[in-house]
């Protein structure tokens, strides 16, 4: 649900409304949990895991940047490593096939670029031809991947 903000408010990317004067106020602290009200600070995501405060624990990553939330304020690209090891949990969960068909699971693993090959066949081969589309069509209309959720963000 997206909030409708007043004229004197800034709407964060996650829908939260903050006073407009807090938008890009350059005070070092973001007021939006997704930090969309400030210019991105690369050093923040590298050091936040040392800081067990609300601003780090409750931080959410920007989905349009294809970031994964490590749960401690750090955001990483795709399958980069989290300082706290959360990426390992994600990788292990994604390797579980569960009740997905072989073809659906192969398609999901290759599309997420979790691994470079499956069953000694390069994912690039699956991705470069229409076989991946056929494999995706074997997936149920609604399915969960990974089979166990790691976070809601």
UniProtKB/TrEMBL annotation:
Protein name (database record): Uncharacterized protein
Gene3D superfamilies named in the record: Low-density Lipoprotein Receptor
CDD domains: LDLa
Source species: Adineta steineri
The keyword NAD is annotated on this UniProt entry: no
S-S pairs: 5-17
Entry superkingdom: Eukaryota
Regions crossing the membrane: none
SUPFAM superfamilies xref list: LDL receptor-like module (SSF57424)
InterPro entries noted in UniProt: LDL_receptor-like_sf (IPR036055), LDrepeatLR_classA_rpt (IPR002172)
Annotated SMART domains: LDLa
Pfam families, alphabetized: Ldl_recept_a
Annotated coiled-coil segments of the chain: none
Annotated PROSITE patterns: LDLRA_2
UniProt keyword terms in alphabetical order: Disulfide bond
């Amino acid at each position: 649900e997206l909030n409708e903000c007043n004229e004197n408010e800034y709407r964060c990317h996650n829908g939260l409304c903050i006073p407009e004067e807090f938008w890009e106020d350059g005070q070092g602290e973001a007021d939006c949990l997704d930090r969309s009200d400030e210019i991105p600070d690369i050093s923040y995501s590298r050091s936040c895991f040392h800081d067990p405060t609300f601003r780090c624990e409750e931080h959410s990553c920007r989905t349009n940047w294809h970031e994964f939330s490590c749960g401690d304020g750090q955001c990483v690209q795709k399958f980069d490593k989290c300082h706290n090891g959360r990426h390992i949990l994600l990788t292990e969960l994604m390797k579980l096939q569960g009740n997905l068909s072989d073809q659906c699971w192969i398609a999901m693993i290759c599309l997420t670029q979790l691994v470079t090959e499956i069953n000694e066949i390069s994912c690039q081969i699956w991705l470069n031809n229409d076989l991946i589309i056929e494999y995706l069509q074997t997936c149920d209309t609604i399915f969960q991947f990974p089979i166990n959720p790691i976070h809601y963000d």
